[in-house]
Amino acid sequence: MSxxxxxxxxxxxxxxxxxxxxxxxxxxxxxxxxxxxxxTSNPFTIKLGNDLSSGxxxxxxxxxxxxxxxxVLDTTIVTGQAKPRNCRPTAGRDEICNATYGNTGWLGVAxxxxxxxxxxxxxxxxxxxTYFNTSTYNxxxxxxxxxxQEIGHTFGLDHQDTNFNNTNLGTCMDYTSNPLGPPSNxxxxxxxxxELDIIYAHxxxxxxxxxxxxxxxGIGGSDWGRLVSASKDGRxxxxxxxxxxxxxxxxxxxxxx
Length: 257
What we know:
Elements: E1 9-16, E2 36-37, E3 44-51, H1 57-67, E4 73-79, E5 94-99, E6 106-115, E7 119-128, H2 129-132, H3 140-153, H4 190-199, E8 226-230, E9 236-242, E10 248-255
C-alpha cells in the first residue's frame, strides 16, 4: 500500500446492550453474527429515516426498492428524526444520514444496537461527503454501492466477499475497487435475498420494530477502543470499547486501498 494515498474504509459499528462475546462471521453464509430485528411475522417493514441532502435521494430510493424485493422484509422511507452531523439513532428504525464528516478515511459507517444478544433495536447509516465530493467517489456506482451495502448491514447481513481484486459478484455486499464492474455491484443479488430468508426464518415472541428501547449515541470520531482481531491480510479489523452507558461498542472495519 502506497503511503502517499490515504486508506479508505467502510466501518460497521455495533452497540451491544449485553456483551456476550464478539460477533462471529459465518464462512458459508454472510449473516453478521446472527443479528436480526425481532418480529412476530414476515414480511415486516423497516423504516428508513431520510436525513439526506438532495444529492443522495435517488440512491436511497433505489436501495429501499432493491431491499424490499426480499420475501421477508420491506423498507419504507420516512421523514428522518436525526441531525445529519450526529445521526443519532431512533428506536425501532434506521436513520440514514450524509454530511462532510471530514478526512476520517471512511466512506460509510453502519451501526446497529443489540439487545438480548442478537436482536437489533435501532440502526444508523452515515455516508461521508468529504470523499463523495471528490472525482474518485462522486459517481453513481460508488454512491449506490455504499448506500446499498450499509443499509444491508443494518438488516444483519455481512459482506459476501472482502477481496478487492477478484471478479465482482454482482452484489453491493461484495467489496470491490470497481463497483461499476462488470458485473455491477450496486444492488443485492439472489444470495443476499436467500441469506435474509435464512436470518429471518424463525419468529420472535416480541418485536423491536418501532419498540420503545433504550438509545445511546453513535460511535464518534475514530476512537474504537481495543483491537481484538484482524485478518491475516490486514484488510479487516475488529475493535471493542465500552460506551457512556456501560454497554459494549464493537466496530468492524473493512480497509480499502
